[in-house]
Amino acid sequence: MDSKDKRGQGRPLPALPRAGPAGLVLHQDEAVIILDKPAGLPVHAGPRGSASVEDWLPALAFGKRRTPQPAHRLDQDTAGCLVLGRTKPALAALGGLFAAGRARKTYWAVVRGGPAGESGEIDAPLLKRSTARDGWWMAVDPAGQAARTAWRVMGRGPGIAWLELAPRTGRTHQIRVHCTHLGCPILGDARYGGGVGALHLLARAIALPLEPPVAATAPVPGHMREALEACGWRG
Fold first, then answer.
1. Domains along the chain with CATH numbers
2. Pairing relationship of beta strands 79-85 and 201-208 according to DSSP bridges
């Protein structure tokens, strides 16, 4: 398909493998596709019609009359596992799993500094805030929605650490805010104190208790490899 945005904005889609969107498919069956979403690509087009995963959906139909649809969301700058439903019943079932917290999600992040301990769970409710000058963001606030994230240190490097995180709830920006709350913002997360650059956050794996069960693991994106290697990762 054309690599240019169909809505007239002229923004190119992120570079694809030679196989096109199909080259990013981690899992495919009659009901579910799991896509390795590139960092920098939003799931849905914004009000200005920017390039998004939606541009790839027709190519991901693979001959079916119905195009697949995202069953959840990932932040624009987060790479990794994105689940698509290929049928209405599949989308309904997936929506129920995500709403009930039954989809087991695993994230990898490289953070600035690092936690004092080696593992734990963050229990910190999140509330959306906004100002005319700064736009919106999420903040830890007792009046917010319950949010819990389990974490463990996978490795440490000079001034950074590699964390594996398992969100127990699915709040907007949950992992990003919780890492900052832990005292170690995600590298490249300018909104929450991680400095400028590419966001070092990967939706590494997902497991869905369907019948039969479905699971997938996303590869480490290029922009995270150096920092992970400094923390002891050996790809």
1. 1-100 (3.30.2350.10), 104-206+216-235 (3.30.2350.10)
2. parallel
